[in-house]
Amino acid sequence: MSSMSGGSETVSFQASETQNTIQRILQSCSKLVEAGDIHESDSTISELVKFLDSLSDAALSDPNNEPAQNDAFDALNEIHQYICSPSLAQEAVDALSFELPKAVSKFAGISNRFLDKAISIIDQFLEKCGPRDMLSILCNTLGYSSNMTKAASYILPPLSGLSKVFTSIKRRHFEQVQVAVPIILNVLKAVALDSDDADDAELESVFHRAVGIANSIYEVCNKLVC
């Protein structure tokens, strides 16, 4: 019993450590961005990404490591709560939007709850940033999939985001679609060719998201015709 109790204390302490680290880095980043210190804010965001990468790597490398999974989920929760804050300056949101979609998408391969949380974080960026900016960011996030070992699960959050971006763009729809679609198709082709590294459920989810994007483009085309 004492062993189990000790283990619980350890898990609690690790989760608290993770939350504190995420909070510290995010608060530091916001202060630097608001102060206009671009160099230091970029350095702080890099520190955040490296920390998130260490958590996702630990959770992905050992699916049975419950403390590592708890740490990883605590980190995503902290990120989500922070981005949701109505008091967060737009400059900080914009700075974080360039790197965090890639970082949180790496967690999607751990389990469905991580996938859902990563999608929720990207959805918050979609609400707070312009759709044209997010289109570019999400296409860049997709392009990074060639560096991922679990590419099929990694691309699910940006694909989900893209299906919402297309219907949010207010003008120059054709130009935006023309740029994005080849990127999307190339990534889907690469994932399909590497299907040995993904299970059937992952591939089904990928193409389900791809159909969602196609439906969004169809909806946009209908609006243009009308």
Automatic annotation (TrEMBL):
GO cellular component terms listed in the entry, alphabetical order: cytoplasm
Residue ranges of the TM segments: none
InterPro entries membership: ARM-like (IPR011989), Glomulin/ALF4 (IPR019516), YAP-bd/ALF4/Glomulin (IPR013877)
One GO MF term attached to the UniProt entry: ubiquitin-protein transferase inhibitor activity
Matching Pfam families: Kinetochor_Ybp2
PANTHER family found in the cross-reference section: GLOMULIN (PTHR15430:SF1)
Protein name: Aberrant root formation protein 4
Organism: Arachis hypogaea
Organism taxonomic ancestry: Eukaryota, Viridiplantae, Streptophyta, Embryophyta, Tracheophyta
